[in-house]
Amino acid sequence: MSEAPSAAPEIIAANLADVRDRIARAASAARRAPSTVRLLAVSKTFGPDAVRAAVAAGQRDFGENRVQEALAKMDAVADASVSWHLIGHLQSNKAKRAAARFHAIHSVDSLDLLLQLDRAAAEAGATPELLVQLDLASEATKFGITPDRAPAVFEQAGSCAAARVVGLMLIPPYFDNPEDVRPYFRRLAEIRDGLAQQGVPDSMLRELSMGMSHDFEIAVAEGATVVRVGTAIFGRRPTAPKV
Ligand SMILES: *Cc1c(COP(=O)(O)O)cnc(C)c1O
């Protein structure tokens, strides 16, 4: 795999400081404690050096969207204390490795995958956090569970043996104007509230993973507890060839 050239460590540190500052201001404006929002640095396509630079600047949580690429990076920075989060679609043939190695998997997009991950986690003696990815736009190209099927998935999650379902994740459609994304963020929070009213325990609903580089402040205003930020920290990724 060829890695994207990463920015100099000072630039990554300065970008991180800027993103943290913007998160803190968005949280304060929404009368939330800044500590209630976790920053996930999305290091996909960038090499271990970029991760090390961010770790040196105090970053602990990293997001990756491909299992293979992430495992190589985990090994390369095994000496640093880092929590790895999988945020991309997971194929079932990789569920085993993912359940064993990731701190959290944000992209649980089917009941089957949930059951597979739980079995794999139990076998590996791991207890990964899982987030249920919702599809609010019914875009054929996107992954996720439609809201009407969420209650059944959460019911099943209640009998997981090893994996712990901790919340919801959203990848909204892309809009040039980030304000246009706000209704999607708001809807995810409403769905969380609805599930709580139906009796899903709070421990399964504590995380809302939503917001990326161009809209994370709006996500924080709408209740995000995890924002997934890549470009604003590490710089632009080369545009991947379409597969
Ligand atoms: C790449 C990616 C991000 C980060 O996107 P940026 O626009 O670079 O901040 C966030 N979430 C998911 C699921 C991603 O795949």
Summarize the structure.
By secondary structure, this protein is α/β, with parallel strands linked by helices.
Which features would summarize this protein structure in a list?
single chain, 243 residues, alpha/beta, eight-stranded parallel beta sheet, 9 helices, 8 strands, globular, binds pyridoxal-5'-phosphate
Model regions low in confidence, pLDDT < 50 over at least 5 residues: none
Q: Termini distance?
A: 15 Å
Give the ligands present: pyridoxal-5'-phosphate
**H and E string:** HEHEHEHEHEHEHEHEH
> What percentage of residues falls in helices of 4 or more residues?
25-40%
Main sheet: strand order: 7-6-5-4-3-2-1-8
Strand content: 15-25%
Radius of gyration: 17 Å
> How would you characterize the largest beta sheet?
8 strands, parallel
Number of helices: 9
Structural class: alpha/beta
Number of strands: 8
Shape: globular
Instruction: Tell me, rounded to a whole number, the average pLDDT.
Output: 95
